[in-house]
Design a protein that fits this description.
Layout (H helix, E strand, L loop, with lengths): L7 E7 L7 H11 L4 E7 L5 H10 L4 E4 L13 E2 L1 H6 L4 E5 L2 E5 L2 H11 L8 E5 L3 H12 L4 E6 L2 H15 L4 E5 L11 E5 L17 H4 L2 E6 L8 H8 L3 E3 L2 H16 L5 H14 L5
Parallel strand pairs: 1-2, 1-3, 4-6, 7-8, 7-10, 8-9, 10-11, 11-12
Antiparallel strand pairs: 3-5, 5-6
């Protein structure tokens, strides 16, 4: 890779960022598309969101990804925000515009693109969402926007799940979503659901854990989608498959949120062949052999 005075810089800001897989995605894309662009991580200390956004613009960065804990913190310092990011209330991609950055959320479009590639549909599905944090909220909004027939949010703290359900119902203009305590999963009707695991349970290093262990729950799931990407195969996925369902992890969501950001920065269109090259580079960086 040749770096010179014409090289454009993109990167990811967060804390921590030392283990990010994003450089593997973006630098692979840039090299294959012959773009004079390099992507690097930026560790931003607590309270530094404003300085980071303004500094990135002053240094002529083409674009920046934003990861925890700054997806909300950067919003006041943007020139503009995309409607989807505004609805979700979180920004993970900054795109350079005259006078400042425009904020986007590519996480949910990335999830949807990954699901479509995996042959998983949301339209007309009964969707179970495990968790009631920021990611679960975004998934619930995505499910509503993509035409889910029903959305059920399961969470240990009922009031948080109820807040998301109320918000989704207000956006949908009907009673589309409902909330249940996690332990109330047994009251679910004998239907077959698409279940999206939106907590950090099962994430490395506590890889043997699942939010729910009961096989009876997984017998109601035709497809389990875990947004955890490390490990590539989670306990939630194992339980879904052991009880007759399909299972997918969060690696492709990670891939496609990055690809969509790259497309926003450069105007490039990343085809499936190139996406597969970036996917392999990401897996290699994570030491995943399959």
């Amino acid at each position: 890779m040749k770096i010179d005075g014409y090289t454009r810089v993109c990167g990811v800001m967060g804390n921590p960022v030392e283990h990010t897989m994003s450089p593997a995605i973006h630098n692979t894309l840039a090299q294959n598309l012959k773009e004079n662009l390099v992507y690097v991580p930026f560790r931003v200390p607590a309270g530094g969101a404003e300085d980071a956004v303004k500094g990135a613009y002053a240094l002529n960065l083409l674009g920046v990804n934003v990861t925890v804990p700054y997806k909300r913190d950067v919003i006041p310092y943007l020139k503009e925000i995309d409607p989807l990011a505004e609805t979700i209330g979180a920004v993970n991609t900054l795109v350079r515009r005259p006078g400042g950055f425009k904020g986007y959320n590519t996480d949910m479009p990335g999830l949807y693109r990954a699901m479509c590639e995996d042959g998983v549909r949301i339209e007309e599905e009964r969707v179970l969402i495990l968790g009631a944090g920021g990611v679960a909220r975004a998934v619930a909004i995505l499910a509503a926007q993509k035409g889910a027939a029903q959305i059920v949010i399961l969470n240990r703290t009922l009031v948080k799940a109820e807040g998301i359900a109320d918000e989704v119902n207000a956006l949908a203009g009907c009673r589309l979503a409902q909330a249940l305590r996690l332990e109330e999963y047994g009251s679910l009707p004998e239907e077959r659901y698409l279940a999206i695991q939106a907590t950090n349970v099962g994430m490395f290093p506590k890889t043997e854990a699942a939010v729910i262990e009961d096989a009876a729950f997984y017998k109601k799931i035709h497809t389990g989608y875990d947004l955890v990407f490390n490990p590539a195969r989670t306990r939630f996925m194992e339980l879904a498959e052991e009880n007759g369902g399909r299972a997918f992890g969060g690696l492709k969501m990670l891939l496609y949120q990055g690809i969509i950001a790259y497309e926003l920065w450069t105007g490039a269109q990343v085809n499936r062949t190139l996406a597969e090259k970036a996917y392999e580079a990401m897996k290699e960086a994570m030491h995943i052999s399959q």
